[in-house]
Predict the structure.
Amino acid sequence: MKGIVSLSIVLVISLLYIPANEGELTPENTVILSNETDESFCKDFSVLLQRVRPEWVVLDSAVIPESVRDRNLIIVGGPDSEYTGVIIKEFLTQEEIEYIQDGHYFILEKESPWADNTIIICTGPDRILTKKAAEEAITSLEGEWTFPPFTSVPDEEAHEYITQIQHIPDEELPKDTLGIDVDAKSPSRISTEEATEDVEYLFYLFSHGYCGYGYFETRGNFDEAKKSILQELESKSMWSPDDFSQLIRNNLTFIHDCHLSVGGHKYGSHEDFWYDKTLEFSKVRSEYYFVSDNTTYQVVSVNGEHPDEFMFPSLNVEGNPIYRVGILSQTAPEPLVLIAHHDHEQLHIELQLYRSDFAYFSEEIFSEETIGGIPVVRIRSFSDHHSEYINQFLAAAQKYRGKPILIIDIRGNGGGNEEWPKKWIARFTGQQPPNNRYFTELISKTTMMGRANYFEYLLDMYPETSFYQIEKDQFTAQVDFFEKYSTTPHWSGPFSQGAQVIPNDTTLIVVTNGRVASAAEGFIIYLQQVENVVFVGENTRGALVFGQMTLHQLPHSKLSLYLPISLNIPLNLEFREERGFFPDLWIPAEDALNYAVAAVRKGTITTVKPLPEAVLQEEFIPEKQPMIEKSDLIPIFLGILFGISFIFVNKKRNKLFFYVAGICLVAAGIIILALVSPLGYGYCMIGIICIIIGVYKWRKEKAVSEKGA
């Protein structure tokens, strides 16, 4: 806590002031001097410092290179840091050195001894406070000292690319054919002839009502897929809807779209964050270290490769900066083999990687609380039928605007209407975020009818939501216009408002995980334009490029098709479908909020505005997730009731086996539902075996009893 208290104690001599000839201090004529360790730490654990415009010059000796002595210098390092420590001490008095060693960070400006330039020293007793000093120094300077967090290609290049993937449909089917029956049930079987007709209609919908048709046409062949499906249909005379939809999925593996689904089969997966739970790593120069049994080991390799590819900047439970071993993978990876050494001892460790099974989300769509003195708001949906709760979220934007810090927890937010997050940012910053993507939409009779179908379905589920009725009527009217005037299908746009940096002096921490998708990822896209935003947790879903859902229905199998009709192309043409947005700090989802709060209180995550002392003095009671959600209690209760009843009914016949069976089945139900653990299936198997043995012995006893009678 000594270092934390010092954040609010800044001596007059440590204040950074702009020199009289401030026009000469620019990012272009300034370099940042540091050693390799401090440079990588600043870039890995500071959102601000990883985007600074001045060039970083990494020292390999305690001498300032001749090549930079005619430039303004920002020196980052502690008095005891390798190389920079020697240089910094030359500029400090003994009193200043003692001040730093007493737990204070320090920013000091000196005149250069070599030229009419400025030297700014950013130093502290540890890397966290040294980083803090460097952040304050950069933000105190006038001008644009950091790059924006977004990049773009020239408009001409983007428009040329988008034109290539905009498929233009031909003649369309009549309106009545394109409608759906929201109450339709799938039959148990359909004939091959009926399935063939469904396939014809399916590929009509792809070519006339799916925005990704042109994009995926360059990665696969829709005609060949259709031909293959029709051939396989001939293998039997009857098909179940499930088998039929699986056949379709098997032949369209070249489609990777997290919004598209046919008959319940999704056409997008996710690269999950798989990580090791056991080791915490630090980094010195370019080498990684960990401590085991009070011995410090240096990492030699991971899976025979340099460990850089497997190391993710993260936090631990105390809020300390660490590196965590992990990978991104769509499937469960094999254990990683880590080789480390200490002196002449070499250590081989097999690291089993885990994926977050964080399934708990507060049942409230919106909630607000304070954890460890830090305000936290949660929003689990941006769907319009949750407008009552989303309006509370919007009110929170005004409530916390201008405060030192706010944590926004969007874990589990699957999206909805992107207008809601835009409104939140506008209220929080006072500035409407521009649409920082290229938006283009396929407008046809098929897509407009699909939109009308979609809102008809939503209206059937949520009849009290007037917005859905308005949208349904609007799209139905557009379909009528298409039919009346024989309008030709076309694409809108592409439209883009570019991107701009939105000023904000409240530090925002946004907590994410792999279930953050669609409009919630749109929230992240808009937040990327806002200053002082830090993302923690895991990478988001990656349901980004294809949007604006429609709903269609195959005529015989009644399979539902959810087809997006708009493309949202990043300004830099970098597609993140199935990968999502990466956090600045990779933390297992269930721990992300708690670790972030601890990091703010410790100073690992710095705030633009100083935190009131009362915040740091408040008790920190971490967020806790229950083992079982309320929605799971009903099946668990029924399982327990069944187990007890089973035991009671059979209590006089081979009680032991039936007792064991009942207990095992109850345990299996609880574990499977609550923990999603393979252990539950083991209990289930034991329970079934006990039932079989119990029934066998009961029937045997019954036969003996009847024979004796």
